[in-house]
Amino acid sequence: MTVAMAVAGGVLGLAVGSFLNVVVHRVPVGASVVSPPSACPQCGHGVRPRDNVPVVSWLLLRGRCRDCAATIGARYPLVEGGTALLFGVTAAWFGLVWHLPAFLYLAAVGVALALIDIDVRRLPDAIVLPSYVVGGTLLAAASALEGDLSSMVGAVIGGAALYGAYFLMALAYPGGMGFGDVKLAGVLGMYLGWLGWSELAVGWFAAFLVGGCVGVALIVAGRAGRRTAIPFGPYMLVGASIGIFLGPGLAGLYLRSMGL
Question: Is the dihedral of CA 165, 167, 169, 172 positive or negative?
Fold first, then answer.
């Protein structure tokens, strides 16, 4: 069952990853993600269905447009393959449960938001705000169908707690924390709180630990300075992933090391 779930999740992830390439390109400039159809930015020719198969088409075309031979960046298949891997891992981890769609949705928006934040230093409301509604609805439905309404209480508390914590940090240090991060924190807190307090605590702490480590590494490598603006959204998403998959284990390890 685990292998089957991983394969099914991976196949779905390939298709979703192809769509996320469109989202990452168009949402920051306010363009529609459904029209017009995808086309080569150099020659304007529409992408044929046979050239729109995730990863495979890029390999067969050797990374070039069929009509004008313009280079197609390797980021396209990397996003598709990365999303497939993330979906496969998520599906295998949770299995065939009611809350799986909620976490697959989080995986999808997480990929899009991380890439957009890296590209334009912004977390678009067009993605973040609907995630409260979509994610909350999927988690609430899962709680009802699984007969575990306490999880939804945790989601509400977790979302409010993380939103409030980031809101206070944004007020205290406006240059280092944007309100896009604050709004994303509420979404991530909702998911982490739905799973449990260990996931919430680890997910919150891991974001700053990962961000700090990467920031120091960039400074040491000469790629950034102390005043260099570094998007924090990707670290929040990585931290949340650590909380989701490793939260209870890491929390237990910490408590045992403290003799608790």
Answer: negative
